[in-house]
């Protein structure tokens, strides 16, 4: 803390105001000329007077010219050199005095020539300033001649010159009272009076300046001088008043300095809260002034105003008082004391960083803060400060002191019991300390780096002697070692955060060893490092450092122990997954082998290893070869270890590592052979190991099989013989079965149909109970389909279904579907009924029942047969099955039963599909139609009304069926509606009327019945027309549509399909072999499918042809040609509806053959009127080509 009245300024540096005399306060001494010091550093400066307005160019040139002539004359009249000369500094001052006198003389001459000139006031002011300057040079000469013993020097010429200067200034005040230089003149008078020691007169003059020129920038500086005057006299109250006046004025270049000095007033008043606020305000004002000057340079009007307030040309200099103080630095440094009294010490670093104007100021404040923390005994808050300080401070002598402070903080933190208690007033709550401090540990590896870098960088400075460099390094090595060993002890004692703390200690040891490689304690420190690295599972580093210990050790037992530790740690490092880079693993392996080989040779240690350690070392060395991929060398060492040390832990592990090495190398034959060797009675394997070896052999055999299978399924063709030989080697075993299955899969992959069939049959014959049999047979069936051998495919599906395992249902359905497509209806039905027997769940029965319902409808099966097969499924309530049962019931005369069954479809008992609903509505209409046919009107009006209502109901039912979207049902319902409407019209015309009717009533009823009959006739005609239109609008040519095209209704109520003719024989053998091969390779190639279909048609096998062509068209390819060929195939098997649809779509595609085939087919199917309409629908000639019927 700064004392009051000690002749020093608020910053603690010597002021340019006089010191208080020895007689005590209030006894000012006489100030000496030039007694002006830098307020921060105390060194003498060149005098800095009041601001100097710019001298006019004419006056400046005249003065310089006169001065030049005077210097030339003086040089010409110079006398001979004196015998005894003054020291150089005095000679320099005397030269300055001579120059100043010449300037004074030239200025006086200019004044005499410039009477009446507007520049005259400026010349007088310049003269007075030169007189004061000469006075200060004389004072400095006297001071130097007294060998700088005292500033209390009485030189008469000094006072004389200053009195002359004051007289000139007062003459200016009198003669030129309106001059713009008056504020400057008053300020300079005050300055000269101060140096003469006439303080009351000085105060009076400066107060007049403030009163008469309040807006002058020098008014602020005058107030600052007055405040300093009272402050140096320890009159703090008036000093506060004067400083406060400046803070209330507009921002100027001394505003921040005033706030800074005001802060020191409060410090001396012991009011730290206000002092801290003033220092902070000083920093803000300094920043605002600097920003304003930058704004002025950038054209900011506000900045220009601030610049003007600084005194024009000297706007960038210090204040006119000459106090060259960097407020941004000094305020930040000096606020530290009060900050520690008022604020949270833990926030010191961010607080200073946020307020520092530059790095130098920040470092100075950090240094002051670190010293303060040390004085308070607060290492917890001081550590962040000293860390930041060492990070930023320059490499000079002070940096070593900073590092010592940092070491002191660390030591107190690591040994809190040895540190004196202490806390700042605002930091007494220990809960505010960092959590790690409450654990008693605050250490980072960076702390050691900061200590070591401080001394290493200092040691590089020029001028540091080798002896000093050595002693200082030794000192800091002790510091670093003390911190690390203490930190290690504290970290090992921690429960929470132990691993993290030890990691920091380990990194610190590494930094220490790198910084002090020649330390006498290197061995002990390296041992400590090994211990810490082991604790933190950094085994690779621990192993390398253990090798370093072995190199440093001289005693053989200790060296052997270090090498064993190195081997152990490096082995653990290699076992860590993903913990090390590939390069680090290479280094670790090489280091382990080096240490292990030294131990095995015994040359380095001079003694043999114990057996347990010998086994461990041998195993670790072998493991490095394994890890490096050198499997043959690893196998040799593992095998030797297993036989040299049988039944040991390492020997057993060596057995399995040897097997793993064979596996990793891909030598499964070698693995199998060595495995059987270890299973032999005389092997070193223990019973427990043998139990694990057998599965390893089995796995190797499987891997061998997988490799053979992979090789067999190559793109250039399959070599199935290796797999077949392997299966023969392991015949009757699971491995043999898998080999055959793999060969089968490889044959399928390469498209070898012959081998596939042969191997499939072998699997079925050799392993009939295998779970793979069903899949194998199914694959054979699909392969037969792809090869166009549908007969074989059916047999394969049925054979697979006959197997004891697997799901039979899809296989039987596939077989039945192929038989139905080939026209073998009887066997298809038999297969479907077999599938129905195999279906055990409602869902499975529904699946089969739906297919049977469709099959019976397509075949036109008798109602009794339908009821026999499907009747038992009614309880499952499948809508499609129920619809089929209902239609059969109605057809067999069970009308009421049929209506009940249809109710299950339509009434919500089962959620019927659209197809099922369409058939249910159709069935209801047929049942009602039967009632109309047998209706007997007894001549009553009630019977007549019932008949007309029944006719309406029949019409509605047929229309509901037609609206469901099923094309076949729609056409059939419309055809049957036409027939029923005609029959109803005839019924109405012939109905018997009641006999009791009058003539008029009878005529009215007959007229109504005739009108209704005509409506029914029109309905019939419209139904036929709508039904026939489906052929051209939807390309539907089912038997009901063809009947409508003839203008006829339908007499047969069945849902008629075209019957598929039985297949006469297979034409697959007549398809070119090349086409079949290409089809096997590319089963979805449309071009190949179309070519194969055409070849089958040539071979008179339309059944197979339409299956192939349907695949081509179904994939969206082939175009009109494929559609036309498909129509020919359909026509050949008797599916005329499908054929006519295909022809019409081929005609849509612009193929002339499609149009011609459509016309011919309609003619052959006895629909000549429709054939005549073909040209109307396709009037243009199509593209030529295409097969004709």
Q: Which characteristics define this entry?
A:
elongated; 53 helices; mainly alpha; single chain; 1189 residues
The Rg value, from CA coordinates, equals 59 Å
Query: In this structure, how is the largest beta sheet organized?
Result: none
Mean pLDDT: 79
Question: What class, by secondary structure content?
Answer: mainly alpha
Question: Care to describe what's here?
Answer:
This protein has 1189 residues and is mainly α. Among the domains are: 537-628, no CATH class; 635-704; 913-1057, no CATH class; 1071-1177, Alpha Horseshoe (Serine Threonine Protein Phosphatase 5, Tetratricopeptide repeat). Helix 12 (327-334) packs parallel to helix 15 (359-376) and helix 51 runs antiparallel to helix 52 (1152-1164). Residues 1-80, 299-319 and 419-439 have low confidence and may be disordered.
